[in-house]
Amino acid sequence: MTKTTFTDLGLDKNILRAIDDAGYEHPTEIQEKAIPSILMMKDVIGIAQTGTGKTASFTLPMIEVLQGGIAKARMPRALVLTPTRELAAQVAENIEKYAKYLSLTHALIVGGVQANDQIAKLERGVDILIATPGRLLDLHERGNVLLRDIKFLVIDEADRMLDMGFIPDIEKIISLLPPLRQNLLFSATMPKPIQKLAEKLMDNPKTIEVAKRSSTTKNVSQYLIMLSRSIQKKEQLIHYIQKLEVESAFIFCNRKRDIDGYADALMKSGVKVGALHGDMSQNMRTDTLKKFKEGNIRVLVCSDVAARGIDISNVGHVFNMDLPLNAEDYVHRIGRTGRAGKTGEAYSFVCLKDDEKYLDAIEKLTDQTIERINAKPVKSPKVQSKTASSPSKDVKKRSSSNQNERDDTPTPVGFGNEMPAFMAIDR
Ligand code: AMP
Questions:
Q1: Number of domains the chain is built from
Q2: Most-buried pick from 3, 81, 296, 326 (CB within 10 A)?
């Protein structure tokens, strides 16, 4: 059977050129299913998670539908609502990438940054407005944006909007829109309140569901590092980062207060590290993410909320310093690696005494038994030796073994001449 191409989906040649520049060969499942319906002006419910190509599944037909029209001052023609600023920024990046041969304008309306530039852009007129609900309502109340010309509405990650308490804001925003418009709603899950919202919002929608992430983590090798007690995690983490020759990683913590502790320990061991959590200013968050994307930060210590939905394609490793209390979060976390067709490795520190029930839930949800590695004590990284040998590759080699339980050799952690450039923690 021949594979569908983007040309088959009926997209304009200037958009096809941009897709070609992005290096995409074929549409993903959600793109193949959603794009033709959206181009036929149908309302669509997309049940899909990040990593499935869902952003392009709505941005590509959206720019196709909007091209050629003219935006009036303060009256955008399309509205994309996202739960977080980072997701809004990612949608904007997608639009820039796919609409580079079209003359469409967009603006980002998110909280946590000065509104002046955003207002000036709106004044000049934009085609697509990407916004988080709170800041959009603020600017609307102040008269800086009018929503009566919106012909195309996208609600992205609706279930997270629900978790974050945004549904009343969304209902308020919907009440400000003209009745004749096309509606798209994307969500990883469809809890009752989202189903209700969709029923109110949509006219005879087409529902498209693609495989859940829990069944699409084939390209992430997963390991549990078994600790007899929840101690020595910092030393173990540094040990593994060295042994695995980690180039780029997300390190997840359950508690915000632990983030700085791990980041400090990594920084002292010479790793270029950054921290990302909800208490940081938006400018700091954006700056940290930029440094991480550019490789100036190699390891990002973060919370679930801060890292959800972030799309960085070349992250090779994920470490879970604690197992998440919610099994779905495990799937989200390990999905930060092994993206865009690449492979990745996920290591979780586990103390069965404390974590057994969370581990059971994860293995049940993902329908697998994760390979165990028994941790051995490692020396404190404070004892740095100039003569320490370079990191061994034995863990790396054994990653490909099929055994379900394995031992890890104790190796003193020292950095000698291998120490990478120092960089201050970014927070
Ligand atoms: P998303 O699910 O929107 O977060 O997208 C996940 C990643 O897949 C992003 O890095 C996209 O650039 C990439 N992507 C989207 N569509 C395609 C495609 N058709 N082929 C290859 N990569 C894609």
A1: 2
A2: 81
Mean pLDDT of the region 397-407: 35
Q: 411 falls in which pLDDT band (50, 70, 90)? A: very low
Domain shared by 320 and 172, yes or no: no
HSE toward the beta carbon, residue 347, CA cutoff 13 A: 27
329 and 399: one domain? yes
Q: If you search the block for the tokens 């999905």, which residue do you land on?
A: 335
Q: Going by C-beta distance under 8 Å and a sequence separation of 6 or more, which residues neighbour residue 420?
A: 270, 271, 272, 298
Q: Which of 209, 240, 255 is the last residue of a domain?
A: 209
Distance 358 CA to ligand 1 centre (A): 30
Query: Which DSSP helix (H) or strand (E) runs through 81?
Result: strand 78-81
Weakest mean pLDDT among 72-81, 116-125, 413-422: 413-422
Residues 201 and 230 in one domain: no
Cα radius of gyration (the chain)? 23
Domain termination residue (choose one: 209, 242, 261): 209
Domain co-membership, 204 together with 259: no
Among the ranges given (38-47, 137-146, 233-242, 274-283), the one the predictor scored with the smallest mean pLDDT: 274-283
Burial grade of 287 (CB within 10 A; 0-12, 13-18, 19 or more)? middle
For atom 18 of ligand 1, the residue with the nearest CA is 24
Q: Identify which of 5, 50, 55 to mutate to test ligand 1's pocket (most ligand atoms within 8 A of the CB).
A: 55
Q: How far apart are CA 146 and CA 300, in angstroms?
A: 39
Q: Which atom of ligand 1 is nearest to the CA of 51?
A: 2
**How far is residue 20 CA from its own chain's centroid?**
23
Asked if 78 and 151 count as a contact pair (C-beta separation under 8 A), the reply is yes
Q: Is residue 382 part of a domain?
A: yes
- Give counts: helices (H), strands (E), the chain: 16, 15
